[in-house]
Amino acid sequence: MNSIIQNYCSDGWNEYIEFHSKIVQVKKGDFIFETGQAIEGLHIIHAGKVKITTKNGNDTERIIRLAADGDIIGHRGFGGSWKYSVSAIALENTDLIFIPLKIFNEAVIANSSFAYAMMIFFAEELRESERLASQLPVRNMVASVLYNNYEVFGFAKGSETKLSFTLSRTDLASQAGVRYETLVRTLAELNTEKVIKIEGKFIHLCDIEKLKSIKEGELN
Amino acid sequence: MNSIIQNYCSDGWNEYIEFHSKIVQVKKGDFIFETGQAIEGLHIIHAGKVKITTKNGNDTERIIRLAADGDIIGHRGFGGSWKYSVSAIALENTDLIFIPLKIFNEAVIANSSFAYAMMIFFAEELRESERLASQLPVRNMVASVLYNNYEVFGFAKGSETKLSFTLSRTDLASQAGVRYETLVRTLAELNTEKVIKIEGKFIHLCDIEKLKSIKEGELN
DNA sequence: AACTATTTATGATTTAAATCATCTTTTAAA
DNA sequence: TTTAAAAGATGATTTAAATCATAAATAGTT
Fold it and tell me: Which of B126, B134, B219 is opposite residue A76, by nearest beta carbon?
């Protein structure tokens, strides 16, 4: 692993953090944490894939972020009541490094460049979250979600187009903020236009440039 | 003013920051900064009111945040390309304190508790931004926006219900992420139910508890 | 006060997406 | 290897919100 901590804390602090960290292993479908629980530390994904979800009022959930190797999760509840405002669910069997809050706080206070890096990390998360405010038609939202899946998961080994991990249609819909049937129809449409290629459950992104332009708001 | 800087930097650093800061005065409707511009520093609102907007693809803009006295603005573009990802527009004549990026960075590196406080500030902004992901019906979104206006602007002096500042209907619609006509109709509906009271342009929040419950996803 | 311009309001119609209803395909289990 | 369960796909219908059209009300200007 080569996380923000390794990069910005001194060797001594890295040892100290590692000594107090522990490995957490979760199975596909398991919660890593759930909305409302008290925050006891920070998780860094060592190997695996995770979805971060939030509740829309009463009923439906929405995926607000995907995370993979090296990504930090569980930082959103920092400050305030120190409770998770979102849930994290493993998309496959996942290993995480858990750093107790006390240790993390000590490291931030002692390593000013780490504190600065964490601040910038949060700023980037904030910018990323602005995507959620864009209320474009379904087609654009779906393109945006597919592109994000590519950014986070990349392409499969030996392929120039196939997503290395495919969310279920239900999860893709949840991330796009639309209903399942609507997502399926939109995928079919993009497939017909050869922007993507549907291969059973799997999805190929055949025209990344077109996808980018659609996600930026290209009409029709 | 009593901002995060005063509270978390040493006296010496406060003097240093103040020495290098300058006052910026903008008139109602003026841009404080615009999407795409290079970031040269951080603004703190000394006295006034500001809306932060983002572009939805080609056409419409959406208000993603309101800010008033003591609030920090312009931090969203930190990191990455160091360009503003949003625009800030004064809702009334506004005085701001501008801190050059170089000075701010020095202060963050030198004052670890300030760096920590900034990190927590960003975390709170991030949590706040999750509101944008909730895709509730118009009625709930409008309630959410009215409540946020109350949180940021408060009630007028001598009134227990009247918002101290009233956004235009167009701006309220932009914040709720709905069309103008839809917003007006929804306000009329909430008015009929006596949750709010419309007094010309001005809005009274008569039943804050009901408003809270609607914004949390109460149906019908 | 009279005249614009802007902001607020409301009715009628259209439309994109949700919902409802099936059906097929794939995966998992007995 | 048959059966059950889950995931994926598509057509038909409904609906909430957008759009179109127009009218009041308010504010600003000469």
Answer: B126
Residues of chain B in contact with residue A132, where contact means CB-CB under 8 angstroms, are 129-130, 132-133
pLDDT digits (tens, 9 = 90+) for A81-111: 999 999 999 999 999 999 999 999 999 999 9
* Residue B32 scores a pLDDT above 70: yes
How many A/B residue pairs have CB atoms within 8 Å? 143
Structural tokens at position B128: 């706040």
In a shared domain, residues A91 and A51: yes
pTM of the model: 0.94
**B182 inside domain:** yes
CATH number for the domain that contains residue A206:
1.10.10.10
Q: Are residues B105 and B148 in the same domain?
A: no
A122 close to B (CB below 8 A): yes
Residues A127 and A148 in one domain: no
Final residue of a structural domain among A113, A133, A153 = A133
Could you list the residue range(s) of the whole structural domain that residue A191 is in?
A: 138-215
Amino acid at position A76, single letter: R
What is the arithmetic mean of pLDDT over A164-190?
Answer: 97
Average pLDDT, rounded, for chain B: 94
Contact call for residues B1 and B44 (beta carbons, < 8 A): yes
The string of pLDDT tens digits covering residues B106-142 is 999 999 899 999 999 999 999 999 988 889 999 999 9
- For the CA atoms of A143, A147, A149, A153, what is the dihedral angle to 10 degrees? 160
B105 C-beta neighbours (distance < 10 Å), count: 14
Note whether A155 and A189 are same-domain residues.
yes
> In DSSP terms, which residues pair with B100 in a beta bridge?
B41
Residue B96 and residue B43 in contact, taking contact as beta carbons nearer than 8 Å: yes
User: Which of B113, B129, B135 lies closest to A129 in CB terms?
Assistant: B129
A68's tokens: 């993979």
- Nearest C-alpha in A relative to B52: A130
Q: Which residue, A83, A108, A133, sits at the end of a domain?
A: A133
Are B151 and B113 within one domain? Answer: no
Answer yes or no: is pLDDT of B1 > 90: no
| Residue A115 forms contact with B (CB below 8 Å) | yes
Interchain contact, A134 vs B109, CB within 8 Å: no
